[in-house]
Amino acid sequence: MKRFWLALGGAALIASAPAFAQTAAPAGHPQVLLKTTVGDIRVELYPEKAPKTVANFLDYVSSGQYTGTIFHRVIRGFMIQGGGYTQSYQEKPTRAPIPLESRNGLKNAAGMLAMARTSDPNSAAAQFFINTVDNAGLDYPNPDGNGYAVFGKVIAGMDVVKKIEATPTGTHGPMSDVPQKPVVIESATITAK
């Protein structure tokens, strides 16, 4: 079951590479380290903007949900999506979905972390995506009157995100845009609270 529906008709704007380096997390901005088979990605989260989404993501990190999952949907010039499927393409069970927090002022810009969902705006559970370009078409109220909830950003490892984005993809069963060689999240760890 895909957790990310939207029309891809609009042209995405390719962003210039912003500076993602940061030495210490501001107070109250948790950080999570995603160790993948192609390198590490560190994200900073914004609980003051998306409290339920951040709490949900941190709960999944703490429970080990993301360990062994893959980036199962990769679209060059758009985003990389993961957190829901095992290496054998089995969807992992999740808790109840969370309410959409897309009206928080955060934008789906390059390097921003957002929740994947179905056409039901309140269907986000464990799957997330990282925007690889500026995707204003995903910001509230686009593309369906609801938008996609942004709750963090990549602060280190954007080169790894771009490496994942560039990986060759194909189809696997009913899924398309699947990396031909699995990109696995080996671990997800809270590194700063």
Low-confidence stretches: 1-25
CATH topology: Cyclophilin
Cα radius of gyration in angstroms: 15 Å
Number of helices: 2
Topology, number of strands: 10
Seen as an oligomer or otherwise, the chain set is single chain
For the termini, the CA-CA separation is 33 Å
Task: Describe the largest sheet.
Answer: 8 strands, antiparallel, barrel
Percent helix: 10-25%
CATH superfamily: Cyclophilin-like
Shape verdict = globular
Question: Could you say what the CATH architecture is?
Answer: Beta Barrel
How would you portray this structure in words?
It contains two helices and ten strands. With 193 residues, the chain is mostly beta strands. It has one domain: Cyclophilin, CATH 2.40.100.10. The strands form two sheets. It has an eight-stranded antiparallel beta barrel with strand order 1-2-7-5-6-4-3-10. It has a two-stranded antiparallel ribbon with strand order 8-9. The protein is globular.
